[in-house]
Amino acid sequence: MKGSFMSRPNLRSSLHALRLSLCWLALLGCCSLAWAAQVVGTIVQLSGPLMAKKADGSARILSLRSEVEGGDTLITQKNTYAMVKFIDNSEITLKPDTTFKVESFAYAADHPEGDQAAFSLVKGGCARSPACWASATRKNFP
Fold this sequence. Notes:
The chain has two helices and ten strands, in the order H-E-E-E-E-E-E-E-E-E-E-H. About 25% of the residues lie in helices and about 35% in strands. A five-stranded antiparallel beta sheet has the order 4-1-6-7-10. It is an alpha+beta fold. The termini are far apart. It is extended.
């Protein structure tokens, strides 16, 4: 094949390599979805800028109805109040200039013995809804 860019055998091996590469990319995409953090809550009230930082250093701006994931560090700005409603219907209100980390959160309505939550208040202030947490198992939510 005079003047052609690739011969047939080279074209076949290139197409095969392309197919393998696409399969690997699809597999990696599926695995990354499985490794994604669990959604543990939603922003239900917000009065200003709110940011979520991940353990890897990436950050995103949150808005009303944004999802909060396990491991997120929530950061409010000056004059910002934010209310997070967790998947167990408990709520927490973050005050201005607050850094609050969701260390871990597990909830299953049909298996309350496994429920647990761990938070870190790095700085600032927050208030939890006592009515929502009053029914929780005390040993799991100190």
